[in-house]
Design a protein that fits this description.
single chain, alpha/beta, Rossmann fold, 10 strands, binds adenosine-5'-triphosphate, AAA+_ATPase, ATP-binding, ABC transporter ATP-binding protein, ABC_transpr_LolD-like
Amino acid sequence: MSTSTADHVPGRAPAGAAAARARGLTKAYGSGETAVLALDAVDVDIARGRFTAVMGPSGSGKSTLLHCLAGLDTVSAGQVWIGDTEITGLKERELTRLRRDRVGFVFQSFNLVPTLTALENITLPMDIAGRRPDEKWIDEVIDTLGLRDRLGHRPAQLSGGQQQRVACARALASRPELIFADEPTGNLDSRSGQEVLGFLRQSVDRLGQTVVMVTHDPVAAARSDLVLFLADGRIVDEMERPTAEAVLERMKRFDAVRGAVPGEG
Ligand SMILES: Nc1ncnc2c1ncn2[C@@H]1O[C@H](COP(=O)(O)OP(=O)(O)OP(=O)(O)O)[C@@H](O)[C@H]1O
């Protein structure tokens, strides 16, 4: 199932349809003896219109990769692009605008505003940006996520799964080029988690979105088109059309062989 071969570098795709990409992406935290190299010269291409999952042992750099690709964190070295825009080197104001206009986020903790209704939460980023929502698109998103009868509810009146669906709708509302999801099912029971994954899947299949998701869960990763495996800050393997069993097996090899390299095993 793994597609790593001698002539293919995991995480790299042919030139062209990348929604985001990084070259030599390096991120170190701290300095001197306590420095941690969270990302070690990562090259990656995130294909447009696909659902990419990022997996790897705890501390392997998954969240750091997501944050650096999304412009939420600065890099120590290397370059990152969203579409054709190089984001490394952008000033904070330009970066804020780019994140607002071109990227959607879904976090483990939902991050909804408790005093606003579901609908107000969904359109909040656009309201802040002073952009008129595309009503037809928002309607489609709301129906795809099954939120029609919950729009007037506040987060406290919604289940965790419904809150995460609102967060997904908020991420989709501005029709971003790219959605980054960091453990979106981490706080959900398995049924709600499956529901949310189903909606992320549909946002790719039906709405043509691009999704990058960090997860610990092989079942969640199995909903993606491609799994990238990180170990010690490097992309060491990838898997097309993953199954939960194959992902689990691959993850077990990290326990057995720390610091696995492409083509090993
Ligand atoms: N703000 C920070 N300051 C110092 N070190 C950090 C910081 N954030 C992350 N790290 C370190 O960088 C490395 C990668 O962390 P990261 O959170 O990206 O890993 P992860 O694969 O997402 O882990 P997990 O699966 O446990 O969430 C780890 O060694 C971590 O301790």
